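Why does this matter for the project? Reviewers at the last site visit asked to see concrete outputs rather than summary tables. In response, this paragraph embeds two records directly. Each consists of the residue sequence and, immediately after it, the corresponding structure tokens. Nothing has been edited or filtered.
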Amino acid sequence: MSPKYATPLITLLVILTGFKSAVHDEVVNYYGIPTVISFDKTEFTLSWSSHPNNTYYKQEYLPKGDAAEGFNDMLLIDFIITDLPAKDAVRAQINTIYERKKTDAVCNFEVVKSQDGNEYILNFIMSEGNSDTLSLVEWSAYDYKPYTDKTGHKGIMLLGISHRAYGDNITPFLRSLKKYKDEQVRKLTVYPTPEILLK
């Protein structure tokens, strides 16, 4: 990884790997796309955004009634301006998952590469709780792809979906996870790429 792009990519991965989003007073639509997006027959509304440096953008969308500190479902769109291939971002994210696996018995992942080798879907699961009881399980799927916005900014787009189960809902969710994740990954694979215009 060249020094020129090391810091923005690390920032991207740190922000992506975690359970809690920061809270902003003002939500900025940096992409110039609709603030309400539909995925799998659910409408998601822009709820949080961040532009911490010149190359990194992040927007999170939640269904009506969900809150960032206790959501059930989330859709997110990240974009980083970089010359790096998508596989480098995926590899770095996998490294953070391996680190979490050391302290999270539930944590695991799968990655699928497109036929041309340019696009990757990484799906993974993490949990919170103690050795006896889980309080939260979160499954996510991230679609990494090379992308150029309408004004020519080249980089990596990440389109992601996340689902959480809490308390008594964790065991039923884990039992149904294989079917659920297969369906969600399939829907993510064919989901239209948002046509962003960086603000």
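We now turn to the second protein, recorded in exactly the same manner.
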Amino acid sequence: MAGSEFAVRPPHPSLRWLVTRYIGYRQQDVRLPVHRGLPSRHVTLNISLAGPVRMIAMPRPDQAPTSARALAGGLHTAPVLIAQDRDQCGIQLELNPLGTRALLGLPAAELSGYVVDLADLGPGRLATLPERLADAPGWRRRFAILDEVLRAESAGVAAPAPEIDWAWRRLCAARGLLRVDALAAEVGWSRRHFGERFRRELGLPPKQAARVLRFERAGELLRRHGRLDLAELAVTSGFYDQAHLTNEWRALAGCSPGAWIAEELPELSFDQETAGTAAADSTV
């Protein structure tokens, strides 16, 4: 893509239980008109340094499309469709869902499936970020402003319940390949109590969260390695078989793996018609 610039940095060490990383981007001559925001382990904060971010389809069918300079999206099990301008610039923050109480003033469960204007969430310091970041002279200064504001916003806030924090970290480390009853037993709770507490904090039941993590793993492998046999990718990512992978991809991404690759990774030259077979020519 012509004129693409990315800057990636972890936050200040005191924030790393709240934020995984900052991703700054500047892109020119963007050809893909609509980008799919896929389900992942993160609550996402997207701050535009140019025009508003335009969401044209939401994960929940009961939420109308919206646009804003800064948007927060909770954990979700369906794609967000984002209209792309030819030239765009902004910063994306990957938030630990267990840190949204500290940063956004509400649990991740209240954001689950929704994308909302950051200005509607309440924290005044965060609402000023689009203007402050747009006026800053470069990525280093912008990331320093994020450190400053987020550290002030989260100062003195208690950490989440240790059992849920531990279980979420354990599930993420296993890429979703853990049984819910085993996790509950390790925490020392009944499966029902564990599931209720987990969903109350993150917004997704443990089984759905594990589903998202397996899907996320498959997407990461495709981006990292490019040409992969889909049957092998399915097994590596924790799916039963290639058909299971394809069905989950349609549910969570809103399209087949081949359609997504054609949109986001067109250089892979993937034949969608053979995506559902295990033949030798079904590699991507």
